[in-house]
Design brief:
Layout: E1 13-18, E2 21-26, H1 27-30, E3 34-39, H2 47-57, H3 59-64, E4 67-73, H4 77-86, E5 97-99, H5 104-108, E6 112-113, E7 118-119, E8 121-126, E9 132-138, H6 146-161
Parallel strand pairs: 3-4, 4-5
Antiparallel strand pairs: 1-2, 1-5, 3-8, 6-7, 8-9
Length: about 190
């Protein structure tokens, strides 16, 4: 298995549903800004809407950090629209809902469950250069937390702009960081 951290996102072109419209999203749309790819198994399921609404409730916070959210499932953009129309919860989503009916994007990110035709819960933070900085994959029975993802975004953005500093466990924006050196060895 090849490491995915610091690898480039794949070239892609997919249909999406956003703000009552069908749009096309490509890898070129992602580059130049921070992005989160938020893979989930399927529309009209159980854990998925709780996660997607958690992201929707925190979307403004991500936007203030300059981060675009892209939810992705192997459903079509038509199914995304139907779910949006049918569910008051999903109607709160303002970020693009990417359609991956062929599974090519799910395969490229290493989250495709071939025998099920759907993705694991994969979360990937991509920097403006198109490099994956955070990768987390859950079994489909385990939901994710947008607050923890926000913390990871802030940590990734901090270390991207503060060469030589690292963020310790449970670090939050504004707290002390570490500057690795021989003087710290065995002292933490």
């Amino acid at each position: 298995m090849q490491p995915i951290i610091n690898s480039s996102i794949p070239e892609f072109k997919v249909e999406a549903y956003k703000d009552g419209q069908f749009i096309t999203i490509t890898d070129q749309d992602v580059k130049g800004k921070w992005a989160v790819f938020f893979f989930y198994p399927a529309d009209f399921t159980f854990v998925c809407p709780t996660e997607l609404v958690d992201m929707a409730d925190n979307y403004e916070k991500f936007q203030k950090l300059g981060v675009e959210i892209y939810s992705v499932s192997t459903d079509s953009h038509f199914v995304h629209k139907a779910w949006h129309d049918a569910s008051a919860t999903i109607r709160t989503i303002k970020y693009p809902m990417l359609a991956d009916p062929t599974g090519s994007l799910s395969r490229a990110f290493g989250v495709m469950i071939e025998e099920a035709g759907m993705a694991y819960r994969g979360t990937f933070l991509v920097n403006p250069e198109g490099l994956i900085k955070v990768a987390e994959i859950h079994d489909n029975n385990i939901g994710r937390n947008a607050d923890e993802l926000l913390r990871k975004v802030e940590a990734a953005q901090f270390v991207a702009t503060h060469s030589g500093e690292v963020c310790p466990a449970r670090w939050k924006k504004g707290e002390a960081t570490l500057k690795p050196s021989i003087e710290l060895v065995g002292k933490i």
